[in-house]
């Protein structure tokens, strides 16, 4: 696996990536991973009953032991309405049954799709953490302040968050240039 992964910044690349995934579980892995911004260790353990019929989810992140409340967007609600199975079934179930998808299998699904979509080399490698970074980058693009993204991702500094989501000096310059007074 690559040491460092990056967000998928281009919406066109992201859409190609999603289309390269098998409909259902594999697409939902990428879409919910991007929508929730969770680490794979938390994402892979989601159960259908935690999502079905809900408008949000509250969970404790494994790594930081912090409570996280995620409110569902309209696109997440659409995905949740398509989930099939018992409440105790994993959303991202292993094909072996009864178990959640493994980290390795999740990585394989995502990186293979990125290669099929022709974006793997452009992005610099894709992994399960790509989804979390894409989530942070999307928040930044939509105008959410870095200080709030830092809190959402449970980072300790805005500088770390900016580096984490791949905000470049060029993007910072463009932001300043866009301000008309």
From TrEMBL:
<dbReference type="InterPro" id="IPR050090">
    <property type="entry name" value="Tyrosine_recombinase_XerCD"/>
</dbReference>
<protein>
    <submittedName>
        <fullName>Tyrosine-type recombinase/integrase</fullName>
    </submittedName>
</protein>
<dbReference type="Pfam" id="PF00589">
    <property type="entry name" value="Phage_integrase"/>
</dbReference>
<keyword id="KW-0233">DNA recombination</keyword>
<dbReference type="GO" id="GO:0003677">
    <property type="term" value="F:DNA binding"/>
</dbReference>
<dbReference type="InterPro" id="IPR002104">
    <property type="entry name" value="Integrase_catalytic"/>
</dbReference>
<feature type="domain" description="Tyr recombinase">
    <location>
        <begin position="4"/>
        <end position="177"/>
    </location>
</feature>
<dbReference type="GO" id="GO:0006310">
    <property type="term" value="P:DNA recombination"/>
</dbReference>
<dbReference type="InterPro" id="IPR013762">
    <property type="entry name" value="Integrase-like_cat_sf"/>
</dbReference>
<dbReference type="GO" id="GO:0015074">
    <property type="term" value="P:DNA integration"/>
</dbReference>
<dbReference type="InterPro" id="IPR011010">
    <property type="entry name" value="DNA_brk_join_enz"/>
</dbReference>
């Amino acid at each position: 696996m690559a040491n460092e992964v990056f967000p998928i910044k281009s919406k066109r690349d992201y859409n190609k990536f999603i289309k390269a995934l098998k409909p259902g579980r594999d697409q939902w892995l990428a879409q919910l991973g991007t929508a929730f911004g969770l680490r794979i260790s938390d994402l892979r353990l989601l159960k259908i009953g935690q999502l079905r019929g809900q408008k949000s989810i509250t969970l404790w992140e494994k790594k930081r032991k912090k409570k996280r409340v995620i409110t569902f967007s309209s696109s997440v609600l659409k995905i949740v309405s398509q989930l099939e199975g018992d409440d105790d079934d994993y959303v991202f179930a292993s094909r072996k049954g009864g178990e959640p998808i493994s980290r390795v299998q999740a990585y394989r699904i995502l990186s293979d799709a990125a290669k099929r979509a022709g974006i793997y080399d452009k992005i610099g490698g894709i992994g399960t953490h790509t989804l979390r970074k894409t989530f942070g980058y999307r928040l930044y693009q939509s105008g959410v302040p870095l200080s709030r993204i830092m809190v959402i991702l449970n980072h300790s500094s805005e500088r770390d968050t900016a580096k984490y989501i791949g905000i470049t000096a060029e993007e910072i310059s463009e932001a300043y240039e866009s301000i008309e007074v």
